[in-house]
Amino acid sequence: MKTFTYNDMDFTVEKVGKGWEIRKGSTVVASGLYAGLADAEAEAKSIALAKTIYPVGIRIIGPDVTHPVTVGDIKYYGPDVTHPNFIYWNKDSASQPKQL
Amino acid sequence: MEIKGKVALVTGGGNGIGEAVVKFLVNKGAKVAVVDMSQKNIDRVVADVKAMGGEAIGVLGNVTSEADTAKFIKATVEAFGQLNIVVASAGIIKDQTMLTLDKETGKVSRKMGLDKWQPVLDVNLTGTFLTIRDSSEAMVNGGWEGILVLISSINKVGQVGQMNYSSTKVADALLPKIVVGEFQMRGIKNIRCVCIAPGYTATPILAGMNQEALKAICADIHLGRLVQPEEIASGIAHCIENDAINATTLEITGGLCYKGGIAK
């Protein structure tokens, strides 16, 4: 079992029976994954999958009324495009098969 | 195509027909990605699949968003290594007649607004397009055997009060002809496309309906009752398993008739 915090969310990946389970808090996000794979590989894949299902994307935090870049009272923080799990919809869509 | 061991993605998988399809396919041995707009519904369905001993992932996603579509397809392939069955069952209704008249003056008192028109087109038609476009892309480039299942409705014939909904559902029913024609033209032989047109089905959408009106509807169904979501799921499973069913729309209505007994 491994727990980790990602993008302010708490996840657990754990082998349950033959497959692996991903939980966000106490909620099951995925079950029965990667049966037959070595534990280390399955754990790594489960962690990566959790980050794909919950991509960093755009986080809106506000209002930061003192910030110079504002739209009304709301400061828009852009996406973290340097994050390894950030999804470029056009690029990833076109390149998806090449990653398999 | 045998369902056992295949990977399915079901949009709108959090309730109604979509949920029934998820559970039916899991029972047949498929691994399933449950995509929905409601995290609560996703969590419930994934928990149910886990209790069934099945394999599933739940992905929150809006089918009208290209980014979300890329996300849920990527997550499915990442989880299960391939994609074979796509059931685009996400759909909404926002019923209203185009014009409403004032009873006293006979003048128009209300028009259907874009707030009722556009979201229905976005989810039911654009969402379906994006789902099958990007799923086909993955299937073609992955070289996987696949089938795209679209959900139309018996109301594709044109239901009053549903100018928006019926327009999308007649379009959805048309898509398999075009998609398979284009696959043929491009030499894509590994993917089929079919559409299911359910009749009045016992889903949460109908549960909120006026029960007297519902009783009147049932009187026009030869079967004498609403179609159950599991019966739609069973029809979809048959389409998946029978490779000869392709480029067509299958109505599953229980025998919906006009008053007087002529089948619609």
Task: Explain what the structure shows.
The complex is a heterodimer of chains A (100) and B (264). With 100 residues, chain A is an alpha+beta fold. Chain A is built from two helices and four strands, in the order E-E-E-E-H-H. Chain A folds into two domains: 2-53, no CATH class; 57-95, no CATH class. In chain A, strands 1-2-3-4 form a four-stranded antiparallel beta sheet, covered by helices on one side. Chain A is elongated, with a radius of gyration of 17 Å. Chain B has 264 residues and is an alpha/beta fold. Chain B has a single domain, classed as NAD(P)-binding Rossmann-like Domain (Rossmann fold, 3-Layer(aba) Sandwich). Chain B is built from eight helices and nine strands. Chain B has helices spanning 16-27, 39-51, 66-80, 114-142, 163-186, 204-207, 211-219, 229-241, and strands at 7-11, 31-36, 56-60, 85-88, 99-101, 108-111, 146-151, 191-198, 248-252. A seven-stranded parallel beta sheet of chain B has the order 3-2-1-4-7-8-9, sandwiched between helices. A two-stranded antiparallel sheet of chain B has the order 5-6. Chain B is globular and about 65 Å long. Classes of the chains: A alpha+beta (100), B alpha/beta (264). The interface between A and B is medium-sized, with 28 and 32 residues.
SSE inventory with pairings:
The complex is a heterodimer of chains A (100) and B (264).
Chain A: E1 2-6, E2 9-16, E3 19-24, E4 27-33, H1 39-53, H2 89-95
Antiparallel strand pairs in A: 1-2, 2-3, 3-4
Chain B: E1 7-11, H1 16-27, E2 31-36, H2 39-51, E3 56-60, H3 66-80, E4 85-88, E5 99-101, E6 108-111, H4 114-142, E7 146-151, H5 163-186, E8 191-198, H6 204-207, H7 211-219, H8 229-241, E9 248-252
Parallel strand pairs in B: 1-2, 1-4, 2-3, 4-7, 7-8, 8-9
Antiparallel strand pairs in B: 5-6
